């Protein structure tokens, strides 16, 4: 697992390395573009939405939403990725901080049409995911939704098959989403499988 300095060092090549995995349909980023496109279209269907992005990285997704008139808020713990994202989104409300220790205070004073998190929450344990998503729900507007795109599996057996196929490429330090297990805490959530190792989890207000 990379710390903030690790992500700072990876920032310049991050988008390229993600793209290569997606194009090759390999773990961990198979389905990456399709996941971002699905979230992008879901948000834009609401119009000029107010969006909070948790772990926005270089702003690949949110910069496009920003360009389409969305109001963007967000938090990331990498100084360099924050700088890259700010250059793409002047006027966005972006803050530095490790969300595993909580949301920036500035984000907690607002409500959002959508809270999105793409390939960021797998750094949290399952218990931390459940608590964090519960906190995010309190920041949603009445018709709001949390859209999480990440390495996800419907069952633990699906995860095991992917881990076996990935071999040495598998990252044992990441804690990936197993939907059937998380449904106990969020029984009304929706799940869309996009690739063999990626999907979108939707939690509504």
Description:
This protein has 205 residues and is of the alpha/beta class. It has a single domain (4-204), classed as Rossmann fold (3-Layer(aba) Sandwich), CATH 3.40.50. It contains eight helices and eight strands. The chain has helices spanning 4-23, 32-44, 62-67, 79-88, 105-108, 126-137, 156-166, 179-182, and strands at 50-54, 71-76, 93-96, 112-118, 140-153, 177-178, 190-193, 198-204. Strands 1, 2, 3, 4, 5, 6, 7 and 8 form an eight-stranded mixed beta sheet that branches. It is globular. The two termini are 31 Å apart.
- The CATH topology comes to Rossmann fold
Strand tally? 8
Structural class: alpha/beta
Order of secondary-structure elements: HHEHEHEHEHEHEHEE
| Head-to-tail CA distance between termini | 31 Å
- The CATH class designation is Alpha Beta
Mind telling me which CATH architecture this is? 3-Layer(aba) Sandwich
What is the CATH homology-level superfamily? Vaccinia Virus protein VP39
Q: What characteristics describe this protein?
A:
205 residues; globular; 8 helices; disordered N terminus; 39% helix; alpha/beta; 24% strand; Rossmann fold; single chain
Summarize this structure briefly.
This protein has 205 residues and is α/β, with parallel strands linked by helices. It has eight helices and eight strands, in the order ααβαβαβαβαβαβαββ.
Blueprint (SSEs and pairs):
Elements: H1 4-23, H2 32-44, E1 50-54, H3 62-67, E2 71-76, H4 79-88, E3 93-96, H5 105-108, E4 112-118, H6 126-137, E5 140-153, H7 156-166, E6 177-178, H8 179-182, E7 190-193, E8 198-204
Parallel strand pairs: 1-2, 1-4, 2-3, 4-5, 5-6
Antiparallel strand pairs: 5-8, 7-8
Helix pairs in contact: 1-4
């Amino acid at each position: 697992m990379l710390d903030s300095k690790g992500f700072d060092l990876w920032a310049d090549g991050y988008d390229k390395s993600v793209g290569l995995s997606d194009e090759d349909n390999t773990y961990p980023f198979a389905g990456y573009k399709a996941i971002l496109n699905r979230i992008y279209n879901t948000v834009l269907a609401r119009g000029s939405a107010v969006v909070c992005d948790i772990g926005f990285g270089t702003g690949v997704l949110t910069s496009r939403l920003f360009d389409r008139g969305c109001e963007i808020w967000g938090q990331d713990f990498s100084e360099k990725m924050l700088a890259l994202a700010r250059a793409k989104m002047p006027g966005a409300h972006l803050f530095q901080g490790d969300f595993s220790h909580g949301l920036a205070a500035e984000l907690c004073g607002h409500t959002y049409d959508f809270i999105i998190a793409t390939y960021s929450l797998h750094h949290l344990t399952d218990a931390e995911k459940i608590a964090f998503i519960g906190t995010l729900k309190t920041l949603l507007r009445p018709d709001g939704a949390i859209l999480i795109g990440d390495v996800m599996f419907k069952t633990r057996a699906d995860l095991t098959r992917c881990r076996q196929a990935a071999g040495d490429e598998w990252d044992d330090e990441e804690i990936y989403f197993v939907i059937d297990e998380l449904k106990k805490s969020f029984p009304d959530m929706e799940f869309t499988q996009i690739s063999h190792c990626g999907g979108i989890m939707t939690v509504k207000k």
